[in-house]
Design a protein that fits this description.
alpha/beta; eight-stranded parallel β-barrel; nine-stranded mixed sheet; globular; TIM Barrel; 11 helices; Lyase, Ornithine Decarboxylase, Chain A, domain 1; 404 residues
Length: 404
């Protein structure tokens, strides 16, 4: 396993580029990708990076260089993928609740299109017939994931076409001559139990028999990474063995080969990411001791939005006595990062680091309170490279039109 970035390296980045700052470790991303390849080496597996986790162009280029494809959920993610150099057949476009117009624009790029509702499937089939192959996203009605907000395969989810509507899909395919080249599902994120994937795979393999033209089955992702010490993570080695066993038996049964696809996002970039902030104030009240930092949920919304846990360390005073703090931001909103957390004594001006900040950190950031977005830095081969400049005041006004 590659060594994590040290306190000294993170401090040096903060001193060079200022805080708050997101820092990404290139070698850790490569390590995670290679772990996936090894785990699923027993079957014809391909991996499409879920771009929504982190779309910095340098991260996309890094993953392309490792051999990954890319999973995009919007036309602009597709355009970013093209700019990063991904070939059309390695770009999968999986939108939801978009109109036919956007899908048609993406179709002109020649990328793979994945449709997830009956209405669009019928419109697309009526217009294009068998001239442009598509895959179909199904909802397997499996409740899974670390939080209801990131569970996408249950009966109340907006994602995918219900497996109970397969007969309707078949009618559309038959009447429009639509060419279906793949089936797709994604049940959620932070899935600990490999049996959830296995259950989904069984559902997909049974349905796949109704679509003799498919070339792949896409099982999405949701592999859990550890956030706390001794945290459970998805056993991808065990999963790889089960998937290979089931896929190889299925291919033997149908007499031809098909690929199995995955769309890892958080698994690839979460642990590679660090978020470094500065302690602005230590504020003691009658109830608690707050550490107020120079950031807020405008930079890292996951703890407030998903109640996610991020380990926090004081890299300026790592040997200080442990004290109990509540870590909060400096925006005009409740923006608690951590309640009652043991951290080595924090002094005003100390640097704190949030771990597991690579996925959905900067990507979900905003300019709330007219605060500026932070810089992004990539550490590769031991060298720190600025990969996104910190916002300046003028960035807050660049798209505004003054009429008064």
């Amino acid at each position: 396993m590659s060594q994590a970035l040290t306190h000294q390296q993170l401090t040096a980045v903060a001193q060079q580029f200022g805080t708050p700052v997101y820092v990404y470790h290139a070698e850790r991303i490569e390590e995670q990708y290679n772990k996936l390849k090894s785990a699923f080496s027993g079957c014809d597996a391909k991996f499409f990076y879920a771009a929504k986790a982190l779309t910095n162009i340098n991260i996309l280029k890094l993953l392309k260089g490792l051999g990954a494809g890319i999973d995009c959920v919007s036309i602009n993610e597709v355009k970013l993928a093209q700019k990063a150099g991904f070939e059309a057949n390695r770009i999968l476009y999986t939108p939801n609740c978009v109109d036919l117009e956007e899908i048609e624009q993406v179709k002109e790029f020649g990328v793979r299109v994945n449709l997830d509702n009956i209405s669009i499937l019928e419109q697309f089939g009526n217009k294009y017939g068998n001239t442009y192959p598509v895959s179909i996203r199904l909802n397997p009605h499996i409740m899974a994931g670390g939080n209801y907000k990131i569970s996408t395969g249950h009966i109340d989810s907006k994602f995918g076409i219900s497996i109970h509507q397969v007969r309707h899909i078949e009618r559309i395919v038959k009447t429009t001559k639509l060419q279906v080249n793949g089936l797709h599902m994604h049940t959620g994120s932070e899935i600990k139990d490999v049996n959830v994937f296995h259950q989904g795979l069984e559902v997909m393999l049974n349905i796949a028999r109704n679509f003799p033209t498919i070339e792949f089955i896409d099982l999405g992702s949701g592999f859990k990474v550890p956030y706390q010490q001794d945290d459970v993570e998805t056993d991808i080695v065990e999963l790889g063995k089960k998937v290979a066993e089931d896929f190889n038996a299925f291919q033997k049964d149908i007499g031809r080969k098909i690929e199995v696809w995955f769309e890892p996002g958080k698994y690839l970039v979460s642990e590679a990411g660090y978020f470094v902030v500065k302690a602005n104030v230590i504020k003691q009240t009658t109830a608690t001791v707050f550490v107020g930092v120079n950031s807020g949920f405008n930079h890292l919304i996951r703890p407030m939005f998903y109640e996610s846990y991020h380990r926090i360390e004081n890299i300026s005073n790592p040997s200080g006595p442990e004290r109990i703090y509540t870590v909060v931001g400096h925006i005009c909103e409740t923006d608690t990062f951590a309640w009652d957390r043991k951290i080595n004594e924090v002094r005003e001006g100390d640097l704190l680091v949030f771990y597991n900040a690579g996925a959905y950190g900067f990507e979900m950031s905003s300019n709330f309170n007219s605060r500026l977005k932070p810089a992004e830095v990539m550490v590769k081969d031991g060298e720190a490279h600025l990969i996104r400049k910190r916002d300046v005041f003028e960035d807050l006004l660049k798209n505004q039109v003054e009429v008064l």
